[in-house]
Amino acid sequence: MSHDGFGDKSVSKLFDAIEDSKHQELDKLIYALGIRHVGEKASRILAEYYLHLDNLMATDVETLRGIKDIGEIIAKSVVDFFALDSTKQLVEYLRSQGVNFDQHVSAKVTSIFTDKNIVLTGTLPTLSRKEATALLVKYGANVVSSVSKKTDYVLAGEEAGSKLDKAQALGITILSEEDVLREVAKYED
DNA sequence: AGGCCTCGAGATCG
DNA sequence: CTCGAGGCCT
Question: A140 is in which domain, residue-wise?
Fold first, then answer.
């Protein structure tokens, strides 16, 4: 039976992975729904504002438009999506399977990165992009995707691309993963 | 206008 | 992963 390399151990791991996925934060769930114009950033904004999927589903265009960075187009896209029968069925199915619908707003630590616009580029030595982003966000940073004159720091790793060139041209402070880790270590309890 | 997010394409890699 | 075009928001 196990000639395909997918035996009891793999089944167990897969089962665990599925269980874990049910406990992910609401922002990940919203992103996974694949709503048009709602990517990672908008998903986080919506999750932190509504805190529970039921609240988001019950909202209206005006309320959505009142949220920073959410305008007419995204508001309508969200409302239209949750009005669909297929969406309602999917949501009820997920609920029946015990998927987490809450967003836990983690307390942000004040640091030198608080309210700073930071861009990541290249491959970091130990942290993945997601991990680095999560770490910086925890310390109050606003991680954005492109370099401009509003960018405060650029966290660069190996094989950094055009973002690094642009940052240097603008005279933006370049940080390494080591710099960031050393800095946040000061705030660990 | 300017900033930057979304999303698809193509390169990179385990 | 990076890049860039297109499009959304203020």
Answer: 117-185
CA at A123, C1' at B14: how many angstroms apart?
15
CATH number of the domain enclosing A38: 1.10.150.20
Confidence (pTM): 0.79
- Is the CB of residue A41 inside 7 Å of nucleic acid strand B? yes
Footprint of strand C on the protein (CB under 7 A): A 37, 65, 67-75, 120-123, 128-130, 157, 159-163
In-domain check, residue A74: yes
User: What is the tally of structural domains in chain A?
Assistant: 2
The tens digit of pLDDT for each residue in A21-46 reads 788 889 999 999 999 999 988 999 99
Task: Outline where A35-116 has alpha helix (H).
Answer: 40-50, 53-57, 61-65, 72-83, 85-96
Radius of gyration over every alpha carbon of chain A, rounded to an integer in angstroms: 20
* Segments of chain A scoring below 50 in pLDDT: 2
